[in-house]
Specification:
The complex is a heterodimer of chains A (about 475) and B (about 425). Chain A is α/β, with parallel strands linked by helices. In chain A, the strands form three sheets. In chain A, strands 5, 6, 8, 10, 11, 13, 15, 16, 18, 20 and 22 form an eleven-stranded mixed beta sheet that branches. Chain A has a ten-stranded mixed beta sheet with strand order 4-3-7-9-12-14-17-19-21-23. In chain A, strands 1-2 form a two-stranded antiparallel sheet. In chain A, strand 3 and strand 4 form a beta hairpin. The longest helix of chain A is centred in the N-terminal third of the chain and has 15 residues. Chain B is an alpha/beta fold. Chain B folds into two domains: about 260 residues, no CATH class; about 60 residues, no CATH class. Chain B has seven helices and 22 strands. In chain B, strands 1, 4, 5, 7, 8, 10, 11, 13, 15, 17, 19 and 21 form a twelve-stranded mixed beta sheet that branches. Classes of the chains: A alpha/beta (about 475), B alpha/beta (about 425). Chains A and B meet through strand 21, strand 22 and strand 23 of A and strand 21 and strand 22 of B. Strand 22 of chain A pairs antiparallel with strand 21 of chain B, so a sheet runs across the interface.
Chain lengths: ~475, ~425
């Protein structure tokens, strides 16, 4: 094994750079004044401020969760900067040319298709750069069919009734420690509303990027698909290389009404810390979708390769009869990374179906856990779940764990869970090499085969990116 | 408030004087007990098991039953194969008139723990992991049980039978029994052991079984829990399996209002274990199995199949942890949790867990919860079976599968009859 894999060097984090923009920040620390300040800076209505304060007061009574299989120094919440906005040189940008050139260069380095490339790529991008949306493209085109795609703060101003109706309806502000924190201090995020019967004409995409050192990012995303609407939403993440840990506690809420369909895809490649586990992002995210209507459909696809610590369980509440929840995940950990990720499928309505496909790859000294819950409530007649959780271990010092929980209270339910563990066999590699394929390429091909069930759920451009990403992340670790 | 009542189980029992012998382990257990309450749902390991019925009761240590029931009075408890190799305990006391150890192979020892000398120093030291509340209660207060010693390279032909009977009068305080069993197989030894629990009335049974299987030794262990339907049963088992040794156990849980099995098995290099379980539950029964299989060294093999058939308002809980330690390369572990729900109010909570710290391993687990396959039901009906019979036959088949390999013929037959009766498949006749 050693001889076969040795000699490949480790891939450094490709996107590690810091953009120097004078940030408009509030001082570090958290109290009601800071929350009032954030709310005032964003010109929010009173009800939203009250909502934040209620969340904050509840948060004060909560304890940080300890049950995940991860260890990390607990963040000091009084040392975090809860608000920072890039200083606007002009109040509104008429075109991309007016955007801070520094900022544009950042996006170019990241390969964000924000200008003409966006048109070629056919992607509308709502760029979140350190908490404030800088520009939004394709808004007009989407507006003609009645779709609202804008920053969260803008939605609060332009569509307060929608925000008020759905905010916190899937993830209540008291849901868990990090969701409560997010509810208190969230600064911005994305808002999507697809009206009745509309199929979104393009994939919607937003790039998150943490830039200001010490500024935790607290995104709030809300996607609502009305009756018969459908949308595919893409989220991709990269962050610059820092030595201090950065906290990211986002909340994503999806609401699907009758026969609506929401597909949410993520490629997460935040800074994972260096080989010795110094630095890296703490990714403590609450993502949940509510299949509220009959025949609604929510699908989560995630490729998790970054972050020092990942704590993330994109879930589906299958409330509507005949609704469908799906979770497709590839989680790769290397060096000292720790990931505890999985999903929850809560079957409440009749004839609800859920599918869970999880592929965990652990290398180096990392720890990779799948943690899931499939719950069938007493009235969920005919509920059906299939789960498959496979792990691949690369090296003798990593670990892979599977913690599925199944709770069934209806006898007509069928719930199945399978999990296997494997490694890249020497015989497999020998076979490839015998056919003239070098070891490194062979490993990449085996990994891609292992993850195929998930990758084929990704939109095309993401699938390509994800494939490359896994190969890059594993370089040098296979030894 | 809860703690006041809760303290009763602990204080009722700790108020009694400490039995003689094994002083250090008893003192340690008492110290741990002093620092903990009866577990509740806030503890992850007890999340699904509601112990509140226990909180409403007060307890006392059981006293000698009079008149003592004879094993022969209870159908299915007398096994001709083991007539001369059995130890019977009634209400926690050794019952010499019902026991017989004349059929033992030379060198094999099988005797009440109360007569054991300090030579049994291994007691309280075997296995891994912190003991739970009920195990500590046992360690602090047990007075009786059995010791089994099999010397090097002795292959015991006749199976041994351990029978624990408990009889409680209804009303008043609830008697508690603490059976304690220590099984030591020296190198290359081989033994078949049947451990059986049976009773009447409301009582609490907290057995602890400690097992050492030395290098190359083989222990086959049948565990039959047929406590009364009003009883509580919380059992702990710790087994250490040496290099190349084998430990095969099969646990059949039929009785108990609330019952829990907590086997913890440690496998050394090249050791093998199987840990099968069957729980047949009805009414408001709750049965919990919390197992821990530890592949501590390389090249171990383990198999676990746990089946539950849940009817009425019963509830089955399974939490099976398999751990592959760092460096335990070549491990081969398979675990299955299979559950059949027969009624609308029945409930199953299952959590198989794999924790793997070595890369060259073959591990898998699976869990399934469902009802009878409509295609299979249709097939049987197309062969002329009534729908009711088809259902019962399939249920019986699901459950009885695990009994097929029980080597003691009379026990196998007895259990099949019990399962037939439970699955209402008796009318089909001739199956057992």
């Amino acid at each position: 094994m050693n001889a076969t894999f040795s000699g490949v060097t480790s891939q450094e984090y490709k996107y590690g750079f810091v953009t120097d923009i004078e940030a408009d920040s509030v001082p570090a620390g958290l109290n009601e004044e800071v929350i009032r300040l954030i709310s005032a800076k964003k010109g929010e209505p009173d009800w939203l401020l009250e909502w934040r304060l209620k969340a904050y007061r509840h948060w004060l009574t909560m304890a940080e969760p300890e049950w995940a299989k991860v260890t990390y120094p607990k963040p000091d919440f009084q040392k975090i900067v809860y608000y920072s906005a890039p200083r606007a040189k002009a109040p509104k940008y008429a075109s991309m040319d007016e955007v801070d050139p520094e900022l544009r260069r950042t996006f170019e380095k990241l390969g964000v298709p924000i200008n003409e490339q966006a048109a070629l790529a056919g992607v509308a991008v709502d760029v979140v750069f350190d908490s404030v949306s800088v520009t939004t493209t394709y808004k007009e085109k989407l507006a003609t069919v009645g779709i609202i795609f804008c920053s969260f703060s803008e939605a609060v101003k332009t569509h307060p009734e929608l925000v008020k109706k759905y905010l916190g309806s899937v993830v209540p502000s008291s849901d868990n420690f990090y969701a409560a924190l997010n509810s208190a201090v969230f600064t911005d995020g994305s808002f999507v509303f697809i009206p009745k019967g509309v199929t979104c004409p393009m994939d919607l995409s937003t790039y998150f990027r943490i830039n200001n050192k010490d500024s935790g990012q607290f995104e709030r995303t809300l996607i609502v698909a009305e009756e018969g609407a459908s949308v595919s939403y893409l989220e991709g993440c990269t962050a610059p290389q820092f030595d201090t840990n950065q906290l990211h506690a986002a909340v994503v809420e999806l609401v699907a009404l009758d026969r609506a369909s929401i597909k949410y895809s993520t490629v997460q490649n935040w800074y994972a810390g260096d080989k010795d586990g110094v630095g890296g992002i703490f990714n403590f995210v609450t993502k949940r979708g509510l299949c509220k209507g009959k025949g609604s459909h929510i699908s989560w696809t995630q490729v998790e390769t970054g972050s020092a610590i990942t704590w993330k369980y994109p879930s589906c509440i299958l409330l509507g009869d005949d609704s469908i929840g799906e979770f497709y995940s590839v989680a790769l950990t290397n060096h000292k990374q720790q990931a505890d990720t999985g999903t929850k499928m809560v079957h409440i309505g009749r004839n609800t179906k859920s599918t869970i496909i999880s592929k965990g790859i652990s290398a180096g000294d990392s720890s990779n856990s799948y943690r899931g819950l499939v719950k069938v409530q007493p009235k969920a007649e005919g509920a059906r779940n299939f789960s498959q959780c496979d792990s691949m271990l690369i090296g003798q010092t990593c670990s892979a764990s599977t913690f599925p929980t199944i709770e069934v209270q209806n006898r007509s339910a069928r719930v199945e869970h399978e999990a296997t563990t494997s490694k890249i066999g020497e015989e497999q590699l020998f076979y490839f090499q015998q056919r003239g394929i070098p070891a490194e390429e062979a490993i990449s091909m085996i990994i891609n085969g292992f993850c195929k069930d998930v990758f084929r759920e990704l939109p095309m451009e993401f699938a390509v990116e994800a494939t490359k990403l896994l190969s890059l992340k594993l370089e040098g670790s296979v030894g | 408030m809860m703690p006041a009542v809760d303290a009763s189980l602990r204080s009722d029992l700790l108020a009694t004087s400490r039995p003689g012998g094994w002083e250090p382990v008893r003192v340690a257990a008492e110290a741990r007990l002093a620092a903990q309450e009866l577990p509740d749902a806030s503890q992850e390991d007890w999340k699904y098991l509601d112990l509140s019925p226990l909180r409403k009761l007060s307890f006392r240590t059981a006293e000698v039953a009079s008149p003592a029931p004879a094993a022969s009075d209870i159908p299915g408890l007398v096994h001709p194969e083991m007539m001369a190799t059995r130890q019977v305990f009634v209400n926690g006391f050794h019952a010499p008139h019902a026991s017989c150890a004349t059929g033992l192979s030379p060198g094999v020892r099988f005797f009440p723990i109360s007569t054991a000398s300090e030579a049994c120093r291994l007691l309280g030291t075997l296995g891994e992991g912190a003991p739970d509340f009920f195990e500590d209660l046992n360690t602090a207060r047990f007075t009786e049980g059995a010791v089994i010693l099999v010397p090097q390279n002795v292959r015991v032909e006749t199976p041994l039978h351990l029978l624990f009977l408990t009889q409680a009068q209804d009303g008043g305080t609830v008697p508690v029994v603490f059976p304690r069993v220590l099984v030591i197989l020296d190198r290359g030894a081989e033994l078949e052991l049947v451990e059986e629990y049976h009773g009447e009335g409301t009582y609490l049974s907290c057995p602890v079984v400690e097992i050492r299987v030395a290098e190359g030794a083989i222990l086959r262990h049948e565990r039959i829990q047929r406590e009364s339907l009003d009883a509580f049963h919380f059992g702990a088992l710790r087994a250490e399996v040496g290099r190349g040794g084998q430990y095969h156990s099969r646990t059949v849980s039929l009785g108990g209002r609330i019952s829990r099995q907590g086997p913890r098995v440690r496998l050394a290099e090249g050791a093998e274990a199987s840990l099968d379980g069957l729980a047949l539950l009805g009414d408001t029964q709750v049965a919990d199995t919390h197992s821990f299989l530890h592949h501590a060294e390389p090249h171990g093999t383990s198999r676990q199949v746990h089946k539950c058939v849940v009817d009425g308002q019963a509830r089955a809980i399974f939490n099976g942890q398999v751990r592959v330690a760092p460096g335990a390369q070549g491990t081969d572990a398979q675990q299955q949790s299979r559950n059949l729900l027969l009624s609308g109010q029945a409930r199953v909570d299952t959590k198989p867990q794999l924790e793997i710290y070595a890369d060259d391993v073959k591990c898998s687990h699976g869990a399934a919860v469902g009802q009878l396959d409509p295609d299979e039901l249709f097939y049987l009906q197309s062969r002329g079976l009534r729908p009711e019979d088809a259902r019962n036959l399939l249920t019986y088949g699901f459950a009885a599968d695990l009994l097929a390999r029980i080597p003691v013929a009379s026990l196998r037959r007895a259990l099949r009859h019990l399962v037939l009766a439970r699955t209402q498949a008796t009318s089909l006749g001739g199956l057992a």
